[in-house]
Design brief:
This protein is mainly alpha-helical. It has 13 helices and 3 strands, in the order ααααααβββααααααα. The chain has a domain of about 140 residues. The radius of gyration is 24 Å and the shape is elongated. One of its GO terms (biological process) is proteolysis.
Length: about 300
């Protein structure tokens, strides 16, 4: 029964992509960003806890590990023929996920270090750092101090008012700490394949939040939409080496973002509120189920160690 319950935190993330897309529709971008990121992290935590519990259960069915764990009684589990293959699969998935995450961390850290080194070689104008490059690009560079990196090709692609809107967008990313949300989304996506579309939804929510902040800062939604559209068109054919955790106005579905800016701000619908609530329920259910089973397995291990009565 305990093994079957562990399937719940492994299956619940499969509902997240649909719920994430629905919750983005008419929610405040900032609220959607927090809701999606927190839910993705909880679902990822439930997945890792379930796989870890399953792998540990299988390990203690092997005599060598049982002796290391000082088990004096057999651990109460279903058939060994069922537990061992599932435990081996869980351990393999955890190892693959950890390896992929480690490679991603190294790659992103290297790219961030390179970007900050390149920005550091240019004299900044306030928080703005202009890089001589034929590739149109602009992005918010995290770290201390915050920087907005823009290439000379991007500056030539926009007029003065559009540049102001673009800079306001990137400043909103730094002010909102959106790189933390993108890093959390990247972490969650390596824990469960179903959370990869949620990573894209989190990036879209971060861009929408920056879009709205930029429109408020410049006082013109149409100007902001035009600046984002022109910047995206300029950077469309450009192959950038920018880290994925650095937010940029030219990423995410630009037509969808432009359409949202050209429309009046919509009020949240009751239906989408229920969608967000359902996503939160799935996330908490995943963690609660995994934690409950982990506690139950821990109690069974204590029994097998003879620390408590049967």
């Amino acid at each position: 029964m305990t093994i079957a319950v562990l399937l719940i935190p492994l299956l619940l993330p499969c509902a997240a992509p649909l719920l994430a897309r629905r919750s983005l529709g008419h929610r405040s971008p900032v609220v959607a960003l927090w809701t999606l990121t927190a839910s993705a992290l909880l679902l990822a935590a439930g997945t890792v806890a379930a796989l870890g519990t399953l792998a540990l259960t299988g390990l203690f069915k092997i005599p060598a590990f049982a002796s290391v764990g000082e088990l004096v009684h057999p651990l109460r589990t279903p058939s060994v023929r069922l537990v061992l293959p599932l435990a081996a699969l869980a351990a393999g998935l955890l190892a693959l996920g950890a390896l992929a995450l480690g490679r991603s961390v190294v790659r992103q850290a290297t790219a961030l270090r390179t970007a900050r080194s390149e920005a550091g070689r240019r004299p900044p104008a306030g928080d703005l750092c202009v890089v001589e490059s034929p590739r149109p690009d602009a992005y918010a560079l995290p770290g201390r101090p915050h920087r907005i990196v823009v290439t000379t090709a991007m500056l030539r692609s926009l007029d003065a008012r559009e540049r102001e809107a673009l800079f306001a967008h990137e400043r909103a990313h730094n002010a909102g700490g959106h790189h933390y949300f993108l890093s959390a989304a990247e972490l969650a996506a390596h824990c469960h394949p179903a959370l990869r579309p949620v990573r894209a939804a989190i990036r879209l929510a971060a861009e929408r939040a920056a879009d709205e902040a930029a429109a408020t800062a410049v006082g013109d939604r149409r100007l902001t939409a035009r600046a984002i559209a022109r910047a995206a068109l300029a950077a469309h054919a450009t192959d950038t080496a920018r880290p994925v955790v650095t937010p940029a106005a030219t990423t995410s579905p630009v037509p969808q973002r432009v359409a949202a800016l050209l429309s009046p701000a919509a009020r949240p619908r009751r239906a989408t509120s229920w969608v967000a609530a359902l996503l939160a329920v799935c996330a908490f259910a995943s963690c609660a189920t995994a934690a409950t089973v982990a506690v139950r397995v821990h109690q069974d291990i204590e029994v097998a160690q003879g620390e408590t009565g049967r």
